[in-house]
Amino acid sequence: MHLLPRGAVFALLLAGLAPAMRADTLVRYHTDIQTAPVIPAAVLDQVMGGMRDAVIRIKGNKTYTSQGNLISITDWMTQELILMDPAHKRFATTPSGQYAEQLKSAIPAMPDQARAALASLKTNFESRSTGQTATIQGIEAEEREFVLTMDMALPGGPQSSSPLMKMVMQVWTAKPEEVERVAALREFKNYMTSASSAMNPAEMLKQVLNIMPGMGDNLNAMAGEMNGALSLRMHVEVFMPILAMMSQQLPPQPGQTQPARLDPNAALMQMNQELVELSSDPLEDALFVVPADYQQTSVDVILKGAISAAAPPQFKQ
Fold it and tell me: Which of 110, 92, 112, 88 minimizes the C-alpha distance to 102?
């Protein structure tokens, strides 16, 4: 008996999905972040940049995604991924299955000392359904809460019964019956399904997170529970009470005023992301084509450029 190559099997699977993937779809998310005064506004502006809005456009077997200074176009029939850097008018192509490893390689290596510290992290992950519901863009959604805590002993640091870091995340996902009712949502679900088949986002996240010892397993569990779910709203709070305790022990520098005290019970950062547009209006074919004036380069160049652009500014001592 002859077995079909994996690529042929995937093409056949997509062919079966094709009738459900013909409708054009646009999905737009907006993100807001608030931080404690200890984080300079310049850092937040540099990291966020144009990433407050994320757009996904779907047309047939092609998808266009845009966030920050990076655009990608994926052809699910050929499994080819195109990355575009609009600021420098350049692009690169790669098989979609290789993208996770290329992204991992583009992230700067972690110093050995930091890696050793992360390896000592003790993490815990919990999730639960809250039973709460909401209507978002006319779509009924249900809420699930995720709690991730991290702790490790800090030599010479203040003693605390609180974890080193705690992240609480509430996610509202579309009810299954809503996916069947709303055509654009159903198309988005088909995209998520085909994307999972071709690139396996859970595995991609696992590869990237494996560079952070002690954190990967629980973060992977969180990603696994979200795999395939259609998020309509997300609220994240990050707490680091140890920073508040340390700030209270630091004496003011000569000639400087005492900084505002941090509340150990207050969030260091809050993030809100919500679906703000869902449309089935026709999309132009030109969106899914590389502009003629773009120059081809390597994936490594584009990824490192995107990572560098998002790096926080350096402040002189």
Answer: 92
Q: What is the share, in percent, of the chain residues with pLDDT greater than 70?
A: 63
The two structure tokens encoding residue 140:
């009924």
Instruction: Confirm if 32 and 167 have CB atoms less than 8 A apart.
Output: no
Contact (CB, 8 A) for 140 and 159: no
Q: CA gyration radius for the chain? A: 22
H or E stretch covering 248:
helix 241-249
Q: What mean pLDDT comes out for the span 246-256?
A: 59
Name every residue whose Cβ is closer than 8 Å to that of residue 25 and which is 6 or more positions away in sequence: 56, 57, 58, 59, 184, 187, 188, 191, 278, 279, 280
**Cα–Cα distance measured from residue 96 to residue 311, given in angstroms and rounded to the nearest whole number:** 25
The amino acid that residue 209 corresponds to is L
CB 110 within 8 A of CB 123: no
Structure tokens at 279: 């449309």
Closest Cα to residue 27, out of 49, 60, 53, 55? Answer: 55
Burial of residue 84, with CB atoms counted within 10 A of its CB: 0-12 exposed, 13-18 middle, 19 or more buried: buried
The encoded tokens of residue 253 equal: 């520098």
Whole-angstrom distance, CA of residue 277 vs CA of residue 55:
9
What is d(CA 72, CA 32) in angstroms, rounded to the nearest whole number? 23
Summarised one tens digit per residue, pLDDT across range 75-130 is 988 989 999 999 999 999 999 888 877 877 777 776 777 666 666 778 888 899 99
Closest to 230 (Cα-Cα) out of 169, 168, 176, 273: 176
